[in-house]
Amino acid sequence: MKERVCFYGIDGWNRPVFQSLDRKNQFFGSVSTLFDCQATEAEVLAKIDARDLSFFGTRFGCEPMGTPAEVVIVKPEPR
Fold first, then answer.
1. Least confident of 14-18, 40-44, 73-77
2. Rounded distance, CA 58 to CA 42, Å?
3. Residue 77 pLDDT greater than 70, yes or no
4. What DSSP letter does each residue of 18-53 carry, written as one string?
5. Is the N or C terminus of the chain more exposed, i.e. has fewer CB atoms within 10 Å?
6. pTM of the model as a whole
7. Residue 28 belongs to what domain range?
8. How far apart are CA 33 and CA 43, in angstroms?
9. Residue 75 maps to a domain
10. What per-residue string of b and e applies to 59-71 under the rule 16 or more CB within 10 Å gives b?
């Protein structure tokens, strides 16, 4: 089963971080596509897809290398 994730923020290594919608203490992100700290969710989602994401760990900003994961990015609902 794939983990459903949504954008959470940019961490101290400039990595885009996504949080699991199924388990709030699971974080995923990209180790190869980096952004400046002020990047918006729209900017990140324009360049990142689920194939780019790795499992980072159980807290924001942990595990700088990541491990492979199967995820689905859930995009925000239009307002």
1. 73-77
2. 24
3. no
4. EEESS-TT-EEE-SSS---TT--HHHHHHH--GGG-
5. C
6. 0.83
7. 3-70
8. 12
9. no
10. eebeeeebeebeb
